[in-house]
Amino acid sequence: MAPHPPLPPPIAAQLNHLLAYSPLPFKVEQMWSGCRNGRYSDRFTLLIPFCLDYIKWDVIFSAYHPSAVPDFIFSAEDVDFNPLLEAHEKEAGANGLAVASPLVDWNYKDPSRLLNLVCHLRDSYVSYQKKKAEQVDDERMRFEISTVLARKGTEIFVASFPDRDEVKFTIPIPDLEFNKLVTPCPWKQEQKIYLQASFVVAKGYTTTAPVPRLKLVSTQDLKPFLTVDDIKLIPWSDEMCMLTYLSDLEVKLNDQVVEAVAGVAKRRRFIEALSPFFGRPVEADPVFCRRASVLGISGVFTFLVHFSIPLQFPTKQPTLKLESVQHFNLNGLPIVSSPINDYPWSPRWDNTEMAERIYDFLVDECLNFKKYCSEKIPATQ
């Protein structure tokens, strides 16, 4: 596929600012020109993060008039979503209508305007989906919605399928301030854990409470610190509603976070225990303490030992890899061993004994690795 033409500089400045400074992970899926064989692209599909998924909006500029305000094409499923022409009731119960548009302040010379506009439209979309969810013909669902809507950051999405309708909640778990728990803080954006709950809409009133599909989701950058896949969710019971479930879940997650913070300290002490045997690490992860590399010497053979330390340490042992600093393959890359886990280990040992046992194991293992390196070189020539 041929590369798309570039954007005109004023439009490119708007899009680059949006991608660089947005608090949300917007993405561009495709870009094209509105004219056949046009010199410039002037429209693109923007992926908007919403409810732990993405919705697609087409942003339409004009290459011939790059100073003009952009237009938007929303999803075909959202035919009732028209945020650029909103009706507002006047005070005192009057029925008058007023037209409001966030485009009236457009200034193409200000590169932040597109970001501000898209964020404004996204906020309108969040409100649109909440109103749509409040109108579902399911009394129990309307009750669930009323209990969680007040929680800051909650997003709701109504999905229609041929055989059913579903309401999906995305609820951030509050009071988990990861950016303050991890020091020095490596994250530019706030890290969150969300509960995603999907309910099938039952028409009218039912005596049986719906059982939602539940899933924990975290922001991507949080995974080196805490993996939500390892957290077992509390089973849903018939007596529960979302409000009570969230209360119990928050207690459980707070305990998990305390364990994660303690896990960082355990891994740090293990890395520190390597120094008396291997010397000061040549490289180490100073924040999460998930990896470290030390220098090993056996006679004239010099190599690196790479430690990959799991979140479940010390229940799960570190994975080792040996890397020669003297042997290289035909691509000029150092020869590296396969992952090593078959060395003596017990989570009951203290850090000093763990490091000493690994050191004793490597005294013999490095000779095997040296032989492997020597055999590997002729095989690649």
Automatic annotation (TrEMBL):
Is the DNA repair keyword given for this protein? yes
The Gene Ontology biological process terms listed for this entry are: cell division; chromatin organization; double-strand break repair
According to its UniProt record, where is this protein mainly located?
cytoplasm
> Keyword annotations for this protein?
Apoptosis, Cell cycle, Cell division, Chromatin regulator, Cytoplasm, DNA damage, DNA repair, Mitosis, Nucleus, Repeat, Ubl conjugation pathway
Its annotated compartments are: Cytoplasm; Nucleus
What top-level branch of life does the organism fall under? Eukaryota
Q: Name one Pfam family in it.
A: BRE
Any GO CC annotation of this UniProt entry: cytoplasm
What protein family does this chain belong to? Belongs to the BABAM2 family.
Q: What is this protein called?
A: BRISC and BRCA1-A complex member 2
What is the species listed in this Swiss-Prot or TrEMBL entry? Answer: Rhynchospora pubera
